[in-house]
User: Fold this.
Amino acid sequence: MRFYRSACWLSLWVLSALVALFVITACRQPAPAEATATPVTLAQPVSGPALTPAATAIPRANLVQRPLTVWMPALLAGEARPGAEQIIAAAVDDFTLRFAGQTVELVVKADEGQASLLNYLRSTQRVAPTILPDLLLLDAKQIWQVIELGLAQPLTPTQLTQRDGFYPFAWDAVSIHDRYYGVPYFAAPVHLAYNVQLVETAPTIWSEVVASGHRFAFAGAGSSGYADEWV
Assistant:
């Protein structure tokens, strides 16, 4: 597994209420049929009157296997989200153990600005489509932009065998026109903590918060652009 930070040479490239959900989305077009695991048979000429060719199979091990390329936002790398990089690295290690010989390249892109992940994606599609990533880690709100580029591949029913392990809101966030374009892997829901000895019933809407007469503390700032580390 290798981590890369984008170089400047390419100046171009998957929830309810206040939930920030990220998803893993397939991006690269499906591989051509000849890149399957089926051995390739070559016909060899045979001397003499017999015209039956002798077949020679090329084993899969001799085929060139390219790395699985994953683009991810800087939000999930370094100090922005402590522990996130280790979790992703563990998932990659598990993947490479399941698929012997398959390597993974994680390419970190900026969260915003000219060098953002989506800007690189658009430019790469236009000038160098052969280096498009296989998978994207991105905010669920950005899926429709990838769909508009014609790069998102919807998941098939057979690929959704683990749906029961997710909250319904997570799947709703990656569903567009009744088709699923990603797998949710990270969510940061806003939550309310209260003292049950002082508050019998937790407020569920803002008017109840105001009418309760209780004092609530709200984070006004946090590190790395997040306000959920003060609790």
